[in-house]
Amino acid sequence: MAHFKYIGRSKQGERVEGVVESNDRAGAVRIIESMGHIPVSISETTKTHKQDAGEKKRFKFELGFQRKPKMKLQDLLLFSRELSDLVASGMTIGRALHTLAARKDESAVGRIVTTLRDEIVQGTALSDALQLYPETFSSLYVNLVRAGEASGNLPNALENVCVHYERVHDARGKVISAMVYPAIVMTIGGLAVIGLMIFIVPRFASTFEEMGAELPKPTLFLMAMSNFTVKYGLAVAAAIAGGIILLKRWVRHGKGQKIWHRVQLRIPIMGSIIKTNAYAHFARTFGTLLHNGVSVLPAMGIVQKTIDNVIISEEVGKARDRVTDGASISKPLAQGKVFPRLLIDMLTVGEETGDMAGALSHITRRYDTELDRMVKTCTTILEPLLIVFVAAIVGGMAICLMLPVLSLTETLGAY
């Protein structure tokens, strides 16, 4: 087949261009018209659509005008659900993508959908087209779609993709919800303390100085802290901000990331939540892949890439290296002593009964329930503790300010 570069107009009169693959010029015209465009000029070219799009992307990147589009998780969920519903209703994948692209959405979602539609129209498999955007469509997403294409049951594969990512989104939301309240309380408490140090304490200090009162040690310490905050607060804040930025860069890759993720697993309560979420994610992802026909070793490789915690991810990789075709999965996982005994035992039962996907489904429900319980427990415990902590700091500052007043009152009363 030949490739034809075209320039045309959309139904709204906007200029469009691209490359299509066809046996002849007439076939190229029909393809362009099926995309909802009116061809203005068509010329044969040696470039494929991917090469042409790649050159445009490199050019735009070099000029700094446009970055490669990427969907947020919420957008990915919505796109996947809409595509699944359209295909399940009887539409072809090309027509379904054309329906979604007809909205003329100029956001990242719209650009991605349009590119996917153009690829499908030219005969590219959906799984191959998805690989153009690896930051949006993970290897798990691509492999589930590829398995659906191979089995001839793409609607069911897309439905499984939707269910999986909806559960991942819910699990992530549970973890985030456990962190929101402590973050809010600590932020408000920190702002209150800074406000007292900068605006309130200096006024009391000047008043005490005019009165010539003898200040107790706690009050003197508070005054010194307030004076330091007023004079060097901005410099300290800048240093802390710089340190946080450097620390974030350090923990993103290599040894720093590994140390930070190991520390996360050892944090009381929060470490248990992170581990429980990782176990549920492992079982959910692994089970989804096996259920859709992906073999064990490739499935474990995909699962390893999708786990956020490096320590647990590396353990899955080590277990995968120990597994050979037909061998047990539970024993290699047990050797690392990272996964809990209950999970290993349930996997063993699945291996013995020949129903690994079913066993992983039970494991997922077990740890999803455990995650719900831990999040509620964490919130219940942290709420009063944080309130007491912030109240103790603010109350301690108030007492330090009131001590000189009480001393003066006693002195005046003696006269």
Structure, explained:
With 415 residues, this protein is mainly alpha-helical. Among the domains are: 2-49; 73-165, Up-down Bundle (Receptor-associated Protein), CATH 1.20.81.30; 273-372, Type II secretion system (T2SS), domain F (Receptor-associated Protein), CATH 1.20.81.30. It has 16 helices and three strands. It has helices at 25-34, 49-63, 73-88, 93-101, 108-121, 126-130, 139-151, 154-211, 217-250, 254-266, 270-291, 296-306, 310-322, 330-335, 341-353, 356-414, and strands spanning 2-10, 15-22, 37-45. It has a three-stranded antiparallel sheet. It is extended, with a radius of gyration of 30 Å. The model is unreliable at 55-66 (pLDDT under 50).
In a few lines, what is going on in this structure?
This protein has 16 helices and three strands.
Essential attributes:
415 residues; Receptor-associated Protein; 3-stranded antiparallel sheet; 75% helix; 6% strand
Give the name of the CATH superfamily of the domain at 273-372.
Type II secretion system (T2SS), domain F
Residues in helix, %: over 70%
Give the class-level CATH name of the domain at 273-372.
Mainly Alpha
The largest sheet is: 3 strands, antiparallel
Cα distance spanning the termini: 108 Å
Low-pLDDT stretches: 55-66
Count of beta strands: 3
Return the average pLDDT rounded to an integer. 81
Question: At CATH's second level, what is the architecture of the domain at 273-372?
Answer: Up-down Bundle
Question: What is the rounded Rg?
Answer: 30 Å
Q: Specify the oligomeric state.
A: single chain
Strand order of the largest sheet: 2-1-3
